[in-house]
Amino acid sequence: MTNNNDTQVNSIFDLSFEELSDSMKDLGLQKYRAKQIWTAVYCFGAKDFSEITVFNKETRNLLSKHFSLERPKISALQTSMDGTQKWLLQNQDKSEIECVFIPEDDRGALCVSSQVGCLMKCKFCHTGTQGLTKNLSAGEIVSQIISVKDSVNDWINSKDERKVSNIVLMGMGEPLYNYDNVAKAVKIIMRDDGIGIGRRRITLSTCGIVPMIEKCGKELAVNLAVSLHATNDELRNELIPINKKYPIKELLKACKNYPAASNSRRITFEYVMLKGINDSIADAKALVKLLKGIHAKINLIPFNPWKGTAYESSSWKTIEKFGDFLNNEGYACPIRTPRGRDIMAACGQLKSV
Question: For residue 20, is it within any domain?
Answer without folding.
Answer: yes
